[in-house]
Write a structure and sequence with these properties.
The complex is a heterodimer of chains A (about 250) and B (about 300).
Chain A (H helix, E strand, L loop, with lengths): L1 E12 L2 E12 L3 E5 L6 H8 L9 E9 L2 E2 L7 H7 E4 L11 H6 L2 H4 L5 H14 L3 H4 L12 H14 L4 E5 L7 H14 L4 E5 L3 H7 L2 E6 L2 E7 H6 L4 H7 L5
Parallel strand pairs in A: 3-8, 3-9, 6-7, 7-8
Antiparallel strand pairs in A: 1-2, 1-4, 4-5, 9-10
Chain B lengths: L1 H42 L2 H4 L3 E2 L4 E2 L2 H32 L2 H16 L2 H28 L14 H25 L3 H9 L4 H30 L2 H6 L17 H9 L5 H35 L1
Antiparallel strand pairs in B: 1-2
Helix pairs in contact in B: 1-11, 3-6, 3-8, 3-10, 4-6, 5-6, 6-8, 7-8, 8-11, 10-11
The chains are: A alpha/beta (about 250), B mainly alpha (about 300).
Bound molecules: adenosine-5'-diphosphate and magnesium ion.
Chain lengths: ~250, ~300
Amino acid sequence: MDKIRVENLNAWFGFMHVLKNINLSFKEKYISAIIGPSGCGKTTLLRCFNRLHELSPGARVEGKIFLDDLNIYEKDVDPVIVRRRIGMVFQRPNLFSNMTIYDNVIAGYILNNKRLSKAEKDEIVEGSLRLAGIWEEVKNRLREYPSSLSGGQQQRVCIARALAVQPEVLLMDEPTSALDPISTYRIEETIRELKKEVTIIIVTHNMQQAARVSDETVFMYLGEVIEIGPTAEIFTNPKKKLTEEYITGKFG
Amino acid sequence: MSKNIGDKIFKGLAIFASLLLILLVISLFLSLVIYSIPSIKKFGFKFLIDKIWDPVADKYGALPAIYGTLVTSFLALLIAFPISIGIAIFISELAPIFLKRLFSFIIELLGAIPSLIYGMWGLFVLAPLVQLKIGPFIQKILGFLPFFQGYPMGVGYLTAGIILSIMIIPTISSLSREILMAVPIDQREAGYALGMTKWEVISKVVLGNARSGIFAAGILGLGRALGEAVAVTMVIGNFHDISISLFSPGVTITSVIINQFAEATGELKLSALMELALILFLTTFLIMGFARYYILKRIVKE
Ligand SMILES: Nc1ncnc2c1ncn2[C@@H]1O[C@H](COP(=O)(O)OP(=O)(O)O)[C@@H](O)[C@H]1O
Ligand SMILES: [Mg+2]
């Protein structure tokens, strides 16, 4: 079952053609990795899935992206609704610096559910932090501000914040590129756990990471999708020469 | 080696300049205190609560001036603050690029107009407007409140408050605009990615991030209103009394000083004016200090 299907997607920054005729699909409750050298358009592609790309000045998108049966680029689709179904974790932790850890986690949830009792909120906050594997570390610090946490802890609270709204898809843009090996390891563990709950698309330019966590891998180069397939196949037996050269470190 | 000497010279110069600044503030303060001594000796604490200002009997009290300064300045802040935040939000978040530029330019222009011109406009345009249109209109709606009793004379607390608000809008809105624009893009994107609407991003994320800065901008505006002299003197009415009604004429610390300084012949009168200046100095100092402290506390907490 395809959760997301991309048809003839093109994207621009001003006159720069960044994504060129992308056709792809991502299976439900799979972990898919997008790899490729930096500047090839991985972030841009990810930001097309939750309609964030169009917020950049001069940015433009053409084509279709289906979330289940809904083309999210259909004229009358409200991007806000799309973004509530598709969560995102950014390259650098971006917790709201003016809110406590608790308020950060609940921030998205209270947007659509205005009237919540304290107990209900507590439950969502705890559940989300547990899912993100950070509950034990922050359970006594919920009223503190994010700046008191380490980068790795902040990033896992970001994951909790995205999970709290129970998204159907979770987009992750190099979520561990700014983190130490131990934090990276723990986030990878979390990602594997989350597979039961949500469809995950993770951008990484760390190939080992893609190999460790993902079921399927997409290889991109210069704004185009070169190859897509089961991760094991992409890494051991790629069909395209370009993919093989990238995997074996001939360029990157 | 020579680089080291250069460093030392620069460091010395920088320290010297900062010391000079501190010395300047202290000497300003001390001169005010010294000149105020005769008045302080004669009237003591009563100076602060006495309403009389009588050069013939050589008796002076500061209450109407303090009252007028506080009423007009806070009224100005009350009017200017929400309008300025609105302008800042419009410029930084909503306007297309050419309107951003246009409005920023207009705001800078307004800030650069000499206060004398605001005063003239206030006297010849705003005062009649308050007397004939704005005053009666407010009275019709809010006339039951004690603040809007009596007949609007045109000049008075309300007119001064409005003029001051117009004068501090450029200060507050241009500072707030800069503070809003400095909120990092990743904070906004975090909001959008969670499914916030544009308005939710502005109100929860952008304003939330900027609130201590905006508070500081308001305080700076208040500081400017407290010290503004020329325009206020032209529209306050110069009437030595206290009235709860904003339609009444009054005085402010600055207007009393401006009106009486030139003809301050007696030592005691000069001293009383100096004490007024000292009060203004201390009030401004305290308010700024409070704002600083409050903001620092906020920043440390976050
Ligand atoms: N905000 C932007 N404005 C203009 N060009 C951009 C912007 N962001 C990215 N680009 C350009 O778009 C291309 C794709 O970038 P990106 O999607 O960030 O690549 P990746 O995530 O694979 O490193 C790059 O050539 C990059 O320089
Ligand atoms: Mg990227």
